[in-house]
Amino acid sequence: MPPRSNRVEHTETDERAQDLLRSIGFSTYESRCYIALIGAASPMNGYEVAKISGVPRSAVYESLQKIVARGAAMMVAGAAEGASAFVALPVEAFVDRLRNQLSGTLDGLASVLPSMSTARSSSVVARLTGRPKVLERFIAVMETAQEHCLMSIWPSGAYEVRDTAARLVAQGVEVTSVIRGDFPDFPGDSHPHAFGDPDDLRQILGCLFYVVVADRSEALIGVREGGQTWGFWSDDRAVVTLAQKFVLKDLVIQELGSALAKAGAVDEYERILREHHERLGAFVGGFGGAPRRTENHSPTSSVPQTRKRRSV
Asked: Strands 207-214 and 84-88, how do they pair?
């Protein structure tokens, strides 16, 4: 028999394996013992497992017995008379059996839990804090869409949700978006925010807005302000309707601007939009918001100008 090494250093793969084993119910000691067993060329007794795994000898036999009870290892006769040794069962067989067990458990839950669930009679408004949580819920709302998905986003956000939008389009969902900046070839019916400079509104309000609405049933409104990101998710009908109208209003502004540009009246249209932003800035400033922008603007060309991509 080849000589056994002392306790091995835990590698990144070992740590990952331990995390996965703990996620299916193994304790830390059990996961270390199991990893030691599958790396052994022959059965090992408790002392040998403890030396390699780093599990205390006082806890190693209990951990090994639990591994045997899980069906991941078996106990065999040791080299010394009356001694016991342990050997891991083939990893593939253990994983397949575990997969079948988990699949059966999930199928059972899927069939039993719905019959126990009571339909929620009240709507919910939930606050989210931090960009990762807001982005995660934004994508989750998109993925619930079965027929329609409406969005108002900025270019950097468009990069992060583009793949989800492409999957929705492939599934037959109608994806309509207004992108407040340059982002060509976004999946679905995408409209660049060419009229009513989004930078004006950002400076007036002092923040950025992100909106997504799925099937008129739920919505998320995200805000990026002063380096912080927060937002609200809701399935309340009033909130969802307001979010939907926010996006649709932007769509109307862009489509009307395109029509007026063809008629040569886009300069007057841009002037009206700027005045609207100034009035909005005065209103926001009255409630302690960002100071409104007051400098003069030069007339905008009748041809929408290419804008640089804006970061979030």
From this structure: unpaired
Look up the domain containing 144 and give its range.
125-286
Give the C-alpha separation, 19 to 284, whole Å.
49
Comparing CA positions, the residue from 196, 299, 205, 174 lying closest to residue 251 is 196
* Ramachandran quadrant class, 254 (left: phi over 0; alpha: psi -120 to 50; beta: rest): alpha
Tokens at residue 84, please?
Answer: 């016991």
Kindly state whether residues 185 and 59 are assigned to the same domain. Answer: no
Residue 102 lies in a domain: no
275 and 185: one domain?
Answer: yes
Rounded distance between C-alpha atoms, residue 84 and residue 44, angstroms: 8
The first and second tokens of residue 173, run together, are 């969902």
Give the DSSP H or E segment for 262.
Answer: helix 237-262
Q: Residue 230: what are its φ and ψ, rounded to 5°?
A: -150, 175
pLDDT tens-digit series, residues 141-184: 999 999 999 999 988 888 899 999 999 999 999 999 988 877 77
Residues 261 and 219 in one domain: yes
The token pair that represents 17 in the structure block: 């394996």
Nearest to residue 207, comparing CAs of 181, 226, 220? Answer: 226
CA–CA dist 159, 210 (Å, integer): 13
Residue 224 φ then ψ, to 5°: -115, 115
Contact status, residue 182 vs residue 155, Cβ threshold 8 Å: yes
The pair of structure tokens assigned to 145 is 């869409």
**pTM of the predicted model as reported, rounded to 2 decimal places:** 0.54
CB 192 within 8 A of CB 203: no
> For 220-236, what is each residue's pLDDT tens digit?
999 888 888 999 999 99
Two tokens at 280? 């909005």
Query: Angle 263-268-270 (CA atoms, 0-180°, nearest 5)?
Result: 105
Q: How many domains does the chain have?
A: 2
Cα torsion 149, 153, 159, 163 to 10°: value is 0
